[in-house]
Specification:
The structure holds two protein chains of two kinds. By secondary structure, chain A is mainly α. Chain A folds into two domains: 129 residues; 220 residues, no CATH class. Chain A has 15 helices and no strands. In chain A, helix 7 packs across helix 10 and helix 13 runs antiparallel to helix 14. The longest helix of chain A has 36 residues. The radius of gyration of chain A is 25 Å and the shape is globular. Chain B folds into two domains: 32 residues; 125 residues, no CATH class. Helix content of chain B is 25%, strand content 33%. Chain B contains three helices and eleven strands, in the order αββββββββαβββα. In chain B, the strands form three sheets. Chain B has a five-stranded antiparallel beta sheet. Chain B has a four-stranded antiparallel beta sheet with strand order 5-4-6-7, with no helix packed on it. In chain B, a hairpin with a 5-residue loop joins strand 9 and strand 10. Chain B is globular and about 60 Å long. The N and C termini of chain B lie far apart (57 Å). About 4% of the residues of chain B have low confidence. The chains are: A mainly alpha, B alpha+beta. At the A-B interface, helix 4, helix 5, helix 6 and helix 10 of A face helix 1 and strand 8 of B.
């Protein structure tokens, strides 16, 4: 704010803007400051810490306090937090609203813990988290900042992943491949993001589900990319890819049936989906030809291409929908993967030493170039998809 | 995304009502069911007090309980101490559960204990006769009411 005031004074003194305009800008920025990302972050961190403290207090199991009083107090506090959320909504205090909402959903988790303790429930932590995910989902959609839906997405994924992995369905649907399940999650989050985007493109939940899809996708591609030394371990086969394939088809059908995206963006999403699906069949194919050093190098280049192409497509798509930070982060990962590929192609101590020096210089050079050309490259990517 | 106060109120009420419903169902299971005492065995020292809860196996006194390794639902009839994979006919008191790794699990294999009493209870429970008091509904849902050591509630046994 101080920096902005100095700038505005300079602009006024140079005759670029009038005094009135300067006052209006300062008033506007002043009103924004109370709900700035910093305040949202700070209050959310506070709410998160308080929530964890409450969970910890409950976990200590206060046997001396009668169960009825513990339950009554818990529901009273939960209702008071819910009232706090409503008050912040009415008062338009955005940062307080986000913090209270986060405290509310953590409070729901603490209540589940208390119920498990009082009634000696035998369920697993994943079952508890999945139940929590289901009951808090509508409330999470009220968030204006990405933090609450992002926390929800992480917990939802952490609950569903091991639950499906341990169920008999896992062998039938995913043929024992955890990676295939991860690939399915990429499309589950993508479908969620797409459907929420129809109602509100800028909603925090839409952004959080998109980001979750990207994160799952990056991890999926990175695991295939890093699994070159032992593809058999990944247990990926064409049969295991059936569920991700069906989900990918559902996703593309929804993309083409709606008018959210331009034609070029639809093509980009199709290409990206196909490249990710290609990743499922890749380990089995490469495993059959994975013999000797040349074949190993060949496999490395192919899997690196999968990473670079999928990240590249995802990056350009992000730029085309105006997600600049996401595009820049993905583009940075592409750069890193190029470096790693160069490193993988080398062999022997002397060459490795030389490789390290060259790689270090390339990293420094890449940093300078990225800093200098970040905006032109972003503009280029945004303009590419019209 | 949510612009209406009414919708926000509904979204906040959903988890509160769901949790209240869960509480009511647990309370009704506890008070409407029939009370039964069953011995518990097989304490694993490594898992005994993991996370401040006691993990044990319930001794139903049934031969060939979950003899097949398949994971499937099962029923223990406490009238004649038999195990069936289908709901037992003519059994007035039965527990519904499932076979998992040759073990019958009915959701009563855990008892939460206070943090500061964990080490003491560990010593008390080892080598002594322990049992649990459970409440069983007509549908076969069982819920733990208390832990007994030598026939007394664990709080009295520690004194």
């Amino acid at each position: 704010m101080v920096k902005l005031e100095t700038k505005i004074q300079t602009w006024v003194s140079q005759g670029l803007i009038s005094e009135q305009q300067a006052d209006k800008i300062l008033a506007h920025e002043g009103s924004r400051s109370s709900s700035s990302w910093f305040m949202v972050g700070l209050l959310s961190l506070g709410a998160f810490t308080i929530g964890l403290g409450v969970i910890s207090l409950i976990a200590a199991n206060w046997r001396e306090i009668p169960d009825a009083i513990k339950l009554g107090a818990d529901f009273l506090v939960l209702s008071m937090i819910a009232y706090g959320v409503l008050w912040a909504f009415d008062a338009k205090k955005k940062a307080v609203f986000e913090g209270a909402l986060l405290l509310f959903i953590i409070g729901c988790m603490a209540t589940i813990g208390l119920l498990a303790q009082i009634f000696h429930s035998n369920g697993t932590i994943e079952q508890a988290l999945l139940f929590w995910s289901l009951i808090t989902f509508p409330a999470v959609l009220a968030a204006n900042a990405i933090l609450v839906p992002m926390i929800w997405s992480v917990i939802f994924a952490s609950a569903t992943f091991p639950l499906i992995e341990r169920s008999p369905l896992f062998e039938k649907m995913f043929h024992g491949s955890a990676l295939s399940l991860l690939c399915a999650l990429v499309f589950v989050f993508a479908i969620m993001a797409l459907n929420f985007r129809r109602f509100s493109p800028e909603a925090a939940s839409t952004r959080a589900f998109s980001l979750s899809s990207v994160i799952c996708g990056v991890v999926f591609v990175a695991i295939i990319d890093g699994g070159t030394s032992n593809f058999g371990r990944l247990k990926l086969s064409l049969e295991s890819g059936l569920v991700p394939f069906i989900l990918a088809q559902t996703f593309l059908l929804q993309v083409y049936s709606g008018s959210i995206y331009r034609r070029s963006q639809k093509f980009l999403l199709t290409a990206l989906t196909l490249v990710i699906l290609l990743g499922i069949g890749m380990p089995e194919t490469l495993n059959s030809m994975h013999r000797g050093k040349v074949a190993y190098l060949y496999a490395n280049v192919i899997t690196a291409s999968l990473s670079i192409v999928s990240l590249g497509l995802a990056g350009v798509f992000c730029a085309s929908i105006g997600r600049r930070p996401m595009f820049q982060a993905i583009f940075f990962l592409v750069g890193l993967r190029f470096l790693a590929l160069y490193f993988q192609a080398l062999g022997g101590l002397a060459l490795t030493g030389l490789g390290l020096i060259v790689s270090g210089l390339v990293v420094v050079g890449f940093g300078f170039l990225w800093n200098k050309y970040r905006l032109p490259v972003t503009n280029w990517a945004e303009g590419m998809v019209k | 995304m949510i612009k209406s106060r009414k919708i926000l109120l509904v979204t906040l009420m959903i988890p509160i009502l769901a949790l209240l419903g869960l509480t009511t169902s647990k309370i009704s299971n506890l008070f409407m069911g029939r009370e039964v005492e069953l011995p518990i065995v097989g304490f694993d020292p490594r898992d005994l007090l993991s996370g401040h809860y006691l993990v044990y196996r319930v001794d139903y006194g049934v031969a060939n309980l979950c003899a097949t390794p398949e994971e499937a639902p099962g029923f223990v009839c406490l009238d004649n101490r038999t195990f069936t994979q289908d709901k037992p006919d003519g059994c007035s008191l039965f527990i519904k559960g499932s076979c998992n790794h040759l073990r019958f699990e009915a959701g009563i294999e855990r008892f939460y204990i206070p943090e500061e009493k964990a080490a003491m209870l560990d010593q008390i429970v080892r080598g002594k006769q322990a049992s649990i008091v459970i409440s069983i509904t007509g549908a076969g849902h069982a819920q733990v009411k208390n832990l007994l050591v030598n026939g007394k509630p664990w709080e009295e046994a520690e004194k």
